Amino acid sequence: MDKRVLEANRVVWNRVADRFYGRNPLPEYGPLAPDEEELGLLGEIEGKKVLDLGCGSGHSLKYLEEQGAAELWGIDLSTAQIRAAQQVLSESQVPVRLFESAMEEDPGLPESYFDMIYSIYALGWTTDLDQTIAHAYRTLKPGGTFVFSWEHPMYSRMLKEEGLLKLVKSYHEEGAYEHKSWHEPAVMYQRKISTYINALGGAGFRIERMVEEARLSGMDLEKHTNSWYTAERAALLPTTIIFKCRKDEE
Ligand SMILES: C[S@@+](CC[C@H](N)C(=O)[O-])C[C@H]1O[C@@H](n2cnc3c(N)ncnc32)[C@H](O)[C@@H]1O
Q: Which residues does UniProt call coiled coil (predicted)?
C-alpha cells in the first residue's frame, strides 16, 4: 500500500467529487459498456448484504436497495464522496454502513459476511491490488460473488491518431502513473489483464465470467461520449473490462 499516493488521491477526489456525482452507477458498468440489465451478473439481490468498494456518491448502492438488498455497506477514500453517499442514502429503509477508508485497508469489516461485493470503476484505483482482493475474499461469504468493472487495460494504451490506433504505452509496463487528462494530480495504476486474473486466483476466487464488449447504440453514444471515451476508439477497443468471480463453498 502506498500511503503517499492514497493521500494525494484523497485530496484529488475531494476536489472532483461533484463532477462524478451519479456519473456511471449501476445498472451501468462503465461508459459504452453493456449494463447489468443486459448482463445479469449480480444475480438475485433480494435480501442480500452488499458491499461497494469505492462507492462514490452512493448511487450504485441506491440501485441495489431498489432491487431489494437487505444491507448496504460502502467504502470510499474521499470525505466528499462519503458525504454525498450519506445524503443519497439518507432515506434508505435498510441499514447503511459507510466507511471513509482506502479499500486496501480494513476499516473493521466483518468476516465471511457479505453475499455480494462489487466495485464500479473504482477497484483499479487501489495501490495494492492483492491486499484489496484478499480483503474482499475474507469478508465475502462462501458461495458469494465478487463483481467489478474497470477501464480496459488496453484502452488507455491506445490512442486514435490520423485514423489509426497507435500503441502509446507498452502493454508490459505496469505500475503507478500520473493521469494527465484529468488536469488534477491523480495517480492511477496500469495493470495487465493477467495481473487481475492472477491476483483473483491467488486469493482463492474462481473467475466465472469476463466481459470485454462495447455498446454503441445512439443512446449510449449520447450519454457517454466525451474527449476520452470516444465512439471511434470504443468501436475498436472495449472501454471497460468486467469480472465476475465466486468464493466457492468449502
Ligand atoms: C469513478 S468513482 C466510483 C463510482 C461509484 N463506484 C459508483 O458506482 O457510482 C471512483 C471512486 O473511487 C474512490 N477511490 C479512489 N481510490 C480509492 C481507494 N484507494 N480506496 C477506496 N476508494 C477509492 C474515489 O474516491 C471515487 O469515489
A: none
